[in-house]
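[audit] Reproducing an earlier prediction to check determinism. Same input, same settings, fresh worker. If the tokens differ from the archived copy the diff job will pick it up downstream; this log only records the rerun itself.
[audit] input (420 residues):
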Amino acid sequence: MSSPCVSVIMPVYNAQPYLCQALDSLKAQTFQDFELICVDDGSSDDSFEVLKRYRADEDFPAVRILTQRHLGPGCARNKGLDVATGTYVYFLDADDFIEPTLLEKAVGRAEQLDCDIVIWDAWFYNNRVQRDQHPAVGTLDFPAFADFPVHETLAFSAADNPDAVFTSFQNWPWNKLFRRSLLVENDIRFPALFRTEDLPFTCMALVKARRMSVIYERLSHYRMRTGSSSMDNKDPHALDFIEAFALLRDRLQEEGLYETYRVSHARWALGGAVYNLNSLTRVDSFARAFAELHDGAAERMGLLDVPLDAYTHPLDRRSLELIKANDAQGYLFFWMRNHGAFVDDDKELFDRVEADLEEARSEIDRLHGEVDRAHGAVVEAQGAREEVERQLDDLRRSAEYRYGTALLRIPRAIQRRLSS
């Protein structure tokens, strides 16, 4: 039996409400040469039963189900990697879903340009309102890396713009297709963390890849605001982000790559530190993480490895100053004061999106009017056609009567002559 082209690896932990949508989006793929490796990470809901139902579906590609105690998504993905046989690897989270053409387009691009990694854009799916709603202009800052139209036809590498690679392409594994040999030959694995476990894995893959390419389409739907995922509750693992960035820094140093990517790493690490601090919901979790950063974690993460002016965002720069000063109260006040700027930005974005939506609705109404008019024309034409067919039928019947009567006169005339 030949190996599949793609190994899809899905860590599953208490994802029963969303699992069918994820699996159905795989079943609907226009490219079906893949195996699915599901790793149940100690689920306590009915996720395992859902997986078994799909494994029994004869119309679904090969499904393997592995199990482990609850060790986190990183360990689950590693378990899947251990048995994967595909040329490429794709990681799909159990609460996300994808467009039907994702694998076809990603594999096609990888084959066309001989890429180790193919990256695409994504929607953020708001689970509370059940729709894709943000970010309205895409998730990735491709233009910051290079001239994006070029990337539609050419491959590139991280070394083409080392100061922007991490901030441009982020550390999500679920919007990237990886060549499996890249991961195996470079021993790229996920650390045993519950959060930010994808950072050392994805970022090392980015810098080790010979060739990469970008697809400027939103092919993934990243589910947010479920109220239950690890992304919705960071407090139980409030320090994982520190360990993740420290691990990446250590690995880059071991590989002799840190100086090349030092600026990009520092910028991404500081942005990650601010994001994680501001996402914590408990006072004790925030206080612990903030104190850890001041007491040495900022240095372990590489936040002090570049001058302050190397950080391009002024809010990040001020945040680092307050962390170094161990001023947690000042940090919270600073972000409380600046939160209004983000609210204003959100309102402006909402206004633009609302205006676009109204314009789209007007266009839809116009198209509906054209469809109605076209339908009326079709109905009118159908009526005219039926009238023409009726007239032809009448003419046909009249002609048959006349010609039939004329033909009958011939044998009657002959009969009269013979009888005379």
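[audit] rerun output stored. Observation attached for the diff report: The longest strand covers residues 212-224.
[audit] end
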